[in-house]
Amino acid sequence: MPLIALCAGDGIGPEVAAQAVRVLDLIDAKHKIGFEYVEAPVGGCAYDLYGTPLPAESLEKAKKADAVFLGAVGGPKWEKLDYSVRPERGLLGLRSEMDLYANIRPAKMFAPLVDASTLKREVVEGIDLVVIRELTGDVYFGKPRGVEKYEGGKRGVNTMVYTTPEIERIAHVAFEIARKRRKKVCSVDKANVLECTELWREVVTEIHKEYQDVELSHMYVDNAAMQLIRNPKQFDVMLTGNIFGDILSDEASMLTGSIGMLPSASLNGKKGMYEPIHGSAPDIAGKGIANPIASILSMAMMMEYTFDNGPVAREIENAVAAVLEKGFRTADIYSAGTSKVSTTEMGDLILKELK
Ligand code: NAD
């Protein structure tokens, strides 16, 4: 039986997670898959119950499961806590303990929302790209690091490090995903000035020899940031290290409009954690107005990447597209002439399409 660990989290986390689970329940009944769920509290809610944002029991459940779904964690209630027990530490702990090295963030434009973007219609219409970001290496983890006394003042140090195996495994992920898409990978680096990314380029080029059906290009990160705004439709799969991907994936996500629309996956092989890219949105928590679509699309990614079920993933995406096409919107994507619906109503509408 496929086992899913559920970490609904804090703020709007449980509200959007509830709708995503309803969708998965319907998929389960329709296709007779037999999902089993296990609750694994992570974040502020876990701190309140157990005094830690990542209880050992939750971690164990997450590790045992085939896939993890996480709503969102954090909020003002826990902001004064020591850094080591903040809700966000629970999420980071989960990612590193599960060695989720491949972060996948699609940025796809749903046609009815084309005017919600801050960019011109002709630039964003039809965007369908995915950023594959390495998640467990780079300057965020490299040593030495820290702030030290230096020549009468101080100096701050972080170290950009990548090993060949780390680059190889993320390159394989990017090429495999490209094979199922438009077969184009653009690898992002700064090989003209950073030796670490010179190695990145060398290794990606080497791995590409195994994927001759996929087109590979290389781009310096500063140019990539510019090209994403100038002509985002040129990209299919963007492959990046941790820090470049951190920045570029946020840039890419905003091309398509609201943060409430965007799903993500963090993978290690078939195992993965799926989550909307937004946070716990304390400003709207409890009001029943959060957009559940990012969470529902995260379940679609789970079907695709962990359960190898592309057709069901498309079914979910098409149901979302159909509801948007009919003019239904949560408050964050509402515009004049459309019908405003609540979190649960959006869930109801998507379920109706799926039926
Ligand atoms: P946020 O993403 O929670 O909210 C930013 C803005 O977007 C808010 O105005 C919010 O109302 C809106 N928004 C977010 N998701 C929405 C949705 N589904 N529907 C409609 N509107 C939505 O970011 P923030 O305000 O910077 O952070 C709030 C808390 O969330 C903080 O504690 C932060 O640390 C945490 N956080 C958690 C995650 C995570 O769990 N993965 C990610 C980012 C931030």
Describe the structure.
This protein is of the alpha/beta class. It is built from twelve helices and 14 strands. It has helices spanning 13-31, 44-50, 56-64, 87-97, 121-124, 164-179, 195-208, 221-230, 242-254, 293-305, 310-325, 343-354, and strands at residues 3-9, 36-39, 67-72, 102-108, 128-134, 146-150, 153-157, 184-189, 215-220, 237-240, 263-268, 271-276, 328-329, 339-340. The model has no long low-confidence stretch (mean pLDDT 95). The structure holds nicotinamide-adenine-dinucleotide. Nicotinamide-adenine-dinucleotide binds at residues 12, 16, 72-75, 88, 91, 259-260, 275, 278-284, 290-291, 294, 332.
Descriptors for this entry?
Isopropylmalate Dehydrogenase, 355 residues, 2 domains, two-stranded antiparallel sheet, binds nicotinamide-adenine-dinucleotide, alpha/beta
Percent helix: 40-55%
What CATH first level of the largest domain would be assigned? Alpha Beta
Give the termini separation.
23 Å
Oligomer: single chain
Radius of gyration: 20 Å
Q: Which structural class matches the secondary elements?
A: alpha/beta
Count of individual helical segments = 12
For the sheet with most strands, the description reads: 10 strands, mixed
CATH topology of the largest domain: Isopropylmalate Dehydrogenase
Give start-end ranges of low-pLDDT stretches: none
Task: Give the count of structural domains.
Answer: 2
Q: What form results from the Cα inertia axes? A: globular
User: What is the average of the pLDDT values?
Assistant: 95
User: What compounds sit in this structure?
Assistant: nicotinamide-adenine-dinucleotide
